[in-house]
Amino acid sequence: MTKLKREDIHLISRHSNWSEEGVQTTLKKSVYTDVTTWHTFLRLFFISLGIGFTVAGILFFFAYNWADLHKFIKIGLIEGLIIILTIYVVFSKIKPDIKNIILTGTSILVGVLFAVFGQVYQTGANAYDFFLGWTMAITVWAIIANYGPLWLVYLLLINTTIFLYAEQVAQDWSFIFVCTLLFVVNAIPFVAFLLSSKLSKTYQAPIWLLNILVLAMVSFATLGILNAIVDRYNDYYDPFFFVLLFLTIAAYSIGMYYGQKQKNGFYLSVIPLSIIIIIATFMINTTEGDGGVLLLVSLFIIISITFVIKNLINLQKKKTDA
């Protein structure tokens, strides 16, 4: 039997003689959070908090005692801790959620290990090398664990690696090309997570992770297009601008359709906001900030945001009445 949602219960109660007591009982059973769910949430929350404070404590330990520790002790301590935690995760019989939380904390310790190694031997490597090595080291963990927070750490490392590589090595890459590359890099896992959630019954990608990827894609698309508008005399004819523009139009169209179909307010607010910013910037830049145009842009922003809010309110009403 499909679990009833709050909207379903309210709809049934309005069109039937269902008693108020029965409605409240069903709400408590199917909608409201019970004691067991709260217990599970608090247990995972405090475990995550404990792992986070432990990692922070290790960082401060090395920072405070750096001058007094021998280099083999510095590297040996962190390596030993990573090995012990990994063995514990693999061979212990604790719950998978707790294993994944510990593994996420261990993946951060891998970054600490690379940082300690770089400080001890002064390798002189670029900053992107540090994040690239960190990313490669936890790739297998991210794939096997298939855990949302660990995927978030992994994707943050990939984005940071690409950005630093473009800044320190590939300085001939245009800003628009970097934005296009980062847009694609975030779009690929988003599509993969979305398809896996639709096709697989065992794994459902966390909504918050999908929303973060959408926010990253929208941010890079907006920044790239704004750069082309503001610096149009130099980068406007960059071929990757047209690639980014095509990808943005396609992604925004699909996102708006998907958001309308799924009644997802996040898609229907983030994407229109990006479009409003782009159009307003284009209007201001092409007229070089004329006073009358600024008034027109202000009216455009007010009307556009009002329309978006009205659409979201209507969407919420449809979800309630459906």
Task: Compile the SSE list and pairings.
Elements (H helix, E strand, L loop, with lengths): L5 H9 L5 H11 L4 H31 L5 H21 L4 H26 L5 H11 L1 H7 L2 H21 L6 H25 L7 H24 L1 H4 L3 H24 L4 H20 L4 H31 L1
Helix pairs in contact: 1-2, 3-5, 4-5, 5-6, 6-8, 8-9, 9-10, 9-12, 10-12, 10-13, 13-14
Summarize it.
This protein is mainly α and 322 residues long.
Describe the structure.
- This protein has 322 residues and is an all-alpha fold.
- It has 14 helices and no strands.
| Outline | flat
* Helix/strand order, N-terminal first: HHHHHHHHHHHHHH
Number of DSSP-assigned strands: 0
Gap from first CA to last CA:
19 Å
Query: Helix count, per DSSP?
Result: 14
Name the structural class: mainly alpha
- State the low-pLDDT regions, or none: none
Helix content: over 70%
Radius of gyration: 25 Å
- What is the overall pLDDT average? 80
Largest sheet: none
β-sheet strand percentage: under 5%
Keywords:
82% helix, mainly alpha, 14 helices, 322 residues
